[in-house]
Amino acid sequence: MGLIAHQLEKAGIATTSISTAKDISESVRTPRSVFLDFPQGYTTGKIGDQKLAIDIVKAALNLIDTVEEETLTTLPYRWGDDDSWKDTVFQIPESGSGATDNRLERSDHPQYQTSQDREYAKERHGEKDCMLCSGIDY
Amino acid sequence: MGTNRQPPINYIERITATYDALGYEQYQWRETESPISFAKGMKPVSESKIGMIATGGVYSSGQVAFHYRDDASYRAISSSVDTSELRATHFAYDLTGAREDINVVFPIEAMRMLEMEGYIGTLADNFLTCMGGIYSQRSVEEELAPKLVERCLQEEVEAVLLVPV
Known about the structure:
The complex is a heterodimer of chains A (138) and B (165). By secondary structure, chain A is an alpha/beta fold. Chain A has 4 helices and 3 strands, in the order H-E-H-E-H-E-H. Chain A has a domain at 2-79. Chain A has helices at 2-10, 22-28, 50-66, 115-125, and strands at 14-19, 32-35, 71-74. Chain A has a 3-stranded parallel beta sheet with strand order 1-2-3, sandwiched between helices. In chain A, helix 3 links the parallel strand 2 (32-35) and strand 3 (71-74). Chain A is globular, with a radius of gyration of 19 Å. The model of chain A has no long low-confidence stretch (mean pLDDT 86). Chain B is of the alpha/beta class and 165 residues long. Chain B has one domain. Chain B has helices at 11-22, 96-100, 108-117, 137-154; strands spanning 49-54, 58-60, 75-78, 86-88, 122-123, 126-129, 159-163. Chain B is globular and about 50 Å long. The interface between A and B is large, with 96 and 99 residues.
C-alpha cells in the first residue's frame, strides 16, 4: 500500500491508511497512518461493531486535516482481554522445523466466494474471463 | 481485567523466519528511503470528495472475482452498493470475519455514516478494491498503482482512505 500511497500523493491526492502491521507500515512509510493492533483480516474493527469502525475510520481521516508530515498513530483499541492471538501468527517451532503455510494455493482463475457469483459473472462478462475489462464495472 | 499488552507483532521478522523454515525464496521487503511526497493544499475532509482503496480481495456479485496469483487488476464498486452484494476472496488472510461482515476489511457503512453526519464532504461514486499479496513490486509500481491513480483522478477524489489487509 506504500507504493500506491506515494503515487497518489505525487498526483495531488492525499492519503491516509489503517494498518494492522506496524512494522510493515514503518518500512514502506505510508504518509499518514493509524495503527490498529488487531489480527490480519480485521483492519477496520470487529464483526458487527459499526461504532468501532466509524471511530477507526474517523481517526484515519482526521490525519488528513491535522498533519503534514509522516505520521503513524497507534489507536487505543484492543482485540481481547489478552493478546494471546499473537502467539500463533507466523510462529514456527524453536527447532525451525514444522513450519506451515496456511495460505491458499495460487491460481490464475477467479476465486469466487459462491458458485452463484461465478454464474452472475459469466452472464455479465461472457463464458470466458473478461480480459478486456477484468470484470470492472464502469 | 486485561493482562499486560504485548508489543505489536513484528511481521517482517516472523514471515522471514517462516519462509526460511519452509525453504521459500525470501520476499524483498520494501524499504522506502527517499523523502516521501505529501499532497499540498488539502481542503478539510468535511469539504472534500473522499475515495477508498482496499486490498482485501473484495468484489461485488456479478463482477469477475480476483485470482490468487499476482492479480494486478482492480474493481470499482459503487459507494452506494447494497452491502449484501459484497464478497471477499483471498489466499493470504482468514476470511471468516470479512465474509460475515465485509465492513471489517471494507468499511463502506462507516464511510456512508460519516458522509451523512457531515464529517466527510462527499463520497466518491466508486470505491476501488484490489488483491494485494502481489510479489512483484514492479507490477504494483508500474501497473496497479498507476491504474489506481488514474481512476482516482477520474473520480475526482481529493483524498483517499487506504485499507490494506
